[in-house]
Write a structure and sequence with these properties.
Blueprint: E1 3-9, E2 17-23, E3 28-35, H1 45-49, E4 52-57, E5 63-67, H2 74-84, E6 96-101, E7 112-118, H3 119-131, E8 138-141, E9 157-165, E10 168-174, E11 177-182, H4 186-199, E12 222-227, E13 237-240, H5 246-253, H6 274-322, H7 334-344, H8 354-367, E14 372-379, E15 384-391, H9 394-406, E16 410-413, E17 417-419, E18 422-430
Helix pairs in contact: 8-9
Length: 431
């Protein structure tokens, strides 16, 4: 599948939903649009049937934490992480879901990267998609789909990345840090972020009502924001990047970091699409039909073999009856033996004989079974076959003549006579 349907869900059912169909092969937008709310997701059901679906969810509902957890095994680290964060979270650990990322290129000493989200919120996102019959196996916080920060020559300058989606500012601060901010409170938030630089505290706590504080490593003394949308700032230097459709920017970079919120109990099992199920049903019917056909053909072949043996036996019997002095009869050479026998009786010459002419005429009789021969005579000197025949109508004679001509025979047709319900006539046929 070279096309992917990207859907960006909001926090609440009434929030606007953005969607985009992206061609992975051509790296271009196929279609895009907005839906008024979660109930309108059914408008994407048909579009999702034959495409991979990846869902972005609002980073305002997801807390991104990076920790240094004692332990050697990933299992032990992940078991301990929720309880290390318990005092920094506004809700009970049991009400939250923890999804982990495998990040190995982090410059810090952190060994645990976790995304925290309310179980109820994650279940709600999945229910919206399920109600619209949209199969989605991958769900990503939108800020993690922004391009990864490029390195700066000055270690005291940290480049952040931003884009405006709808009425929100998506901001990515590092490989595992970002936030979603309503545009109307952006001036206040940027001031808070600027103040946090001086106190060397990260301000991702502004990212969600779930979080009390997130105290990580100190930020650099200066921040530059590379913005893919028109973004004003009183506290930071903003570099204008080439403007792009926000969801297209996310789609282009969705696979840069292999992370999926749908883990553990929320992991979606592989489901066969209705179209694939239909094709499998058709394939099963085809296989059964093929087996039945083969079985019928085998039985038919056996019957034909038995009939062929009977015909061969009948040929031998008829030949021995005609030529009783013959001891051995080879069915494969009966035709040549008959020619020799007939030649001995003066019925053949150096030219084509009677049997050869009959062989050439035979397909015409097969093609027009309505025409019945009444008498057949062969003139060996003229190499001509004279035929008297009858049929139910005149058309049979015309069809017979056409069939003879197709066999490249020279045909001369005599007059036709109507005798009651039968038509009689004659043919003179040469090879």
């Amino acid at each position: 599948m070279t096309e992917t349907l990207y859907i960006r869900l909001g926090s609440k059912a009434h929030d606007v939903i953005h969607w985009l169909i992206w061609s992975e092969q051509n790296r271009e937008i196929i279609a895009s649009g907005e839906l008024a709310n979660a109930e309108a997701l059914t408008q994407l059901t048909e579009k999702a049937q034959q495409r991979t679906v990846i869902t972005f969810v609002s980073g305002s509902d997801v807390i991104l934490k990076q920790l240094t957890v004692p332990g050697n095994s990933q299992r032990a680290i992940r078991l301990a992480a929720p309880y290390m964060l318990e005092d920094a979270l506004a809700q009970d650990v049991e009400q939250l879901f923890f999804a982990y990322a495998n990040i190995k290129n982090d410059s810090s000493e952190n060994n645990c990267f976790v995304a925290v989200v309310e179980r109820a919120q994650l279940a709600q996102w999945q229910s919206w998609l399920n109600d619209a019959n949209i199969a989605c196996r991958v769900m990503i916080p939108d800020v993690l789909a922004l391009p990864i920060n490029s390195a700066s020559d000055n270690e005291n300058i940290m480049p952040w990345l931003a884009v405006i989606l709808g009425e929100q500012v998506l901001l990515r601060q590092s490989i595992w840090q970002g936030m979603v901010i309503d545009q109307n409170i952006w001036p206040a938030i940027e001031q808070r972020l600027s103040d946090s630089l001086t106190s060397s505290l990260h301000s991702s706590s502004e990212n969600s009502a779930l979080e009390k504080a997130d105290k990580n490593a100190p930020l650099p003394s200066k921040v530059v924001i590379n913005s893919y949308s028109t973004l004003s700032s009183n506290c930071f230097t903003v570099n204008a990047m080439p403007e792009e459709l926000p969801l297209a920017l996310l789609a282009e970079n969705a696979n840069q970091q292999k992370f999926n919120l749908l883990q553990g109990e929320f992991q979606v099992k592989q489901q066969r699409s209705p179209m694939l199920a239909n094709w499998l049903s058709v394939a099963a019917v085809f296989v059964v039909a093929l087996l039945l056909t083969v079985a019928v053909k085998v039985v038919k072949l056996q019957q034909i073999s038995a009939e062929q043996a009977q015909v061969k036996e009948k040929i031998v019997q008829v030949y021995k009856k005609a030529f009783p002095k013959t001891r051995r009869v080879n069915v494969a050479t009966v035709r040549s033996q008959l020619k020799r026998k007939l030649a001995g009786y003066g019925s053949s010459s150096s030219q084509e004989g009677f049997l050869t002419m009959l062989t050439k005429v035979r397909p015409a009789f097969t093609a027009v079974p309505q025409l019945k021969p009444q008498s057949i005579k062969f003139d060996a000197k003229r190499q001509e076959l004279r035929l008297q025949a009858s049929a139910n109508d005149y058309q049979a004679f015309e069809k017979f003549k056409i069939a003879l001509e197709k066999a490249k025979l020279t045909v001369s047709q005599g007059s036709l006579n109507n005798q009651g319900d039968q038509v009689t006539g004659s043919f003179s046929i040469k090879g």
